[in-house]
Amino acid sequence: MAIYGRLTPSGACAGLLLVLLTRSAVAGPPYVSDDPEPTEYQHFEIYAFTNGMTARDGTAGQSGIDFNYGAAPDLQFTATVPAGFDRPVGGGASVGLSNIELAAKYRFLHQDGFGLDVSIFPRVFLPSGSNTVGDNRVSLLLPVWVQKDWSGGWSAFGGGGCTVSDRRAVDFCQAGAVLTYQLLPKLQVGAELFHQTADSSGAPESSSVGVGLRYDLNDNYHLLGYVRREIENANETNRYSWYASVLFTF
Known about the structure:
Elements lengths: L43 E12 L2 E15 L2 E14 L5 E4 L3 E9 L1 H4 L2 E4 L2 E3 L13 E11 L4 E12 L6 E13 L2 E10 L9 E11 L4 E12 L1 H4 L2 E10 L1
Antiparallel strand pairs: 1-2, 1-14, 2-3, 3-4, 3-5, 5-6, 5-7, 6-8, 7-8, 8-9, 9-10, 10-11, 11-12, 12-13, 13-14
């Protein structure tokens, strides 16, 4: 499962955007936190996604494709290509290619033997090449994700990690936890608690709550949606954010 387009604001829109882009019980997208289960061996998961956030300084977001392939048992390769937009309050909108992401998820522990699924999912964010959209430096996210499933349709997953770059002042860490429930055979709902440390000098840390859903149209087409609201420093970081995608699995 991929880590799909996720928002981390900073810069002109309260906002430098970093996408923390994606199943036993289906996990990962649409939430900010990811799950540890990789795409099945020799299968594909492709998200056509859009996301956005609004803060005191303006609105920003991304749309793009998040491509995932099960390259080997317990190993997933991911590539995300987003186009971003940034519209500061009182200014014009900027649009352009944002940070392309390359990642690999490896699950090294399983529930049937260890009691939890556990994976690492290092992710490289390439420079956007723009001074107005995305981040114009290389950064690296180093997270660990865990998951536990129960009978009756309940599942919990989460974890966290830190993002590092050549500018130590903008390094930050994050942690999140999600609880999901299979409400109907085709409908899963969930809630998330997420926290992130300051991602730039002088910026506040943030905490948020979010709710998400996934609806399976059939075995190959799925609809995902998510909304999130900050409960700490909302005006400076993220008054609210959203994510929506169509997932193709085959």
